[in-house]
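G., the chain you wanted modeled:
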Amino acid sequence: MSKEISLIADDGTEVTFVDDGEPVSGAMKKVYFSPDRTYVVAFFRDPLDRQGEQRLKLLTSSYREKIFTNEKADYWKDYFCWPTKTVEWNGLKGIVCPCYSSKYYFADGKFKGKEKEGKWFASAKLMNKFLSSAQKGTWMHRIKMCIQMARAVRKLHALGLAHSDLSYKNILVDPETGSATMIDIDGLVVPGKFPPDVEGTPDFIAPEVLETKDLPKDDPKKILPSRLTDLHALAVLIYMYLLNRHPLKGGKQHSKDVEEDDRLMMGREALFIENPRDTSNRPNINDLEPSSLPQADVTKRPYTMCGPYLTELFNKAFVLGLHNPKLRPTASQWEEALIKTVDLLFKCSNPKCEEKYFVFDKSRTPVCPFCGQKHNAHQPIMNLYYSPKGDGHFVNENHRVVIYDGLPLFSWQTDRGIAPNENIREEDKPSVADCQIYLGKWVLINRRLTDLNWIDDKGQKHNVPKGKFIELNEGTKLLFGSSSTSRLAIIQIL
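Predicted structure as tokens:
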């Protein structure tokens, strides 16, 4: 028979949960739901030491306050499942956490009611075998999911924290909406105060941690999880969610012993399977399971299909930074590159294409890498420029926006001073313009911009009022405002 248990938390508030004798059991905690199922109370199986209790106290007080007691609190609540307070019951320490949003549970299919653990969307074999097209989400949604992951890691690192066990077990994802939320916050590393409790999850542990795994904890040569090892795990996650294969698991064998081979493959001998200078770890197509194809075939879906910005960061993460942690891209760099990659997405015209979008490669005859659909030429590209000194002299920003029929433009694309993150104002969130095909011609319709101008061949400005449109031709110049951060766009027709 179930019964309600009421406790007084460390902050003096009452916490109630239902004990039905069958709590949700994890490796380290037993979880009970509140009567209204708005929060859970998770009790650690084993007593915590003094250090563990101090860690929880800091995480539920000062660190939590830095994120959730300001005007941006509502923004971050979707990025973290952060513990709010601590309790004690039957001699065991527990934490109170908000319940996950319903979008992080499968609504139908084989796994109805189960959590959307990241493994279902990182492995081609699992996706192809068990998930419907709708459950997989589009490629755009999975990129946006990665943006949220990068943003959450960026926030942790800005606070001086490290996750230490970043993996698809500790991030719930929803490719249908492009959402992600970080869980298991209670084990965060506070450098200089609280070391990590674990070394990480296999497949996501950084090579330098694996290399020194057997050394005692007090050995100065032993490397423990940190913000730098988080950056390795983040890169692995992004690679797996976009390409559905592991970046280090290739065809190269290092030992006949399976465990030793795996340790060397992920540790001392780690080699990117798509390393452009060393092809010795390329997956052997004959060894791949049919259920993992076509994603596991790097010749058909190379990492370069992710576009120039992500290709550069994958090279930094898995070539330059694989064994040199200080060279790994930061979470901020991943966030920026992923956002810019969204601007390169082209909508596939094949209604049966599961991914719906792909990165446009400036080809005159672009082909969707997912379904093979060929697309016609005459494709407009918006090349963005900015004025470093705000004096009207513009330089190329290495930022392009691929235009397709129905494309909305947002303030962060037209104004360099705006970013689609926690600092954006409500008035900057709606689209400001959109691009369409009108009577066989490409046009940009001004919806909300107060100072949109096109510039003629003589350098003269011509205002485009709200509700009016400007035709997009080769060389068309658009100035999206008069401030020092307003961008200039030059149209290129492919």
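The longest strand covers residues 395-402.

Shout if anything looks off.
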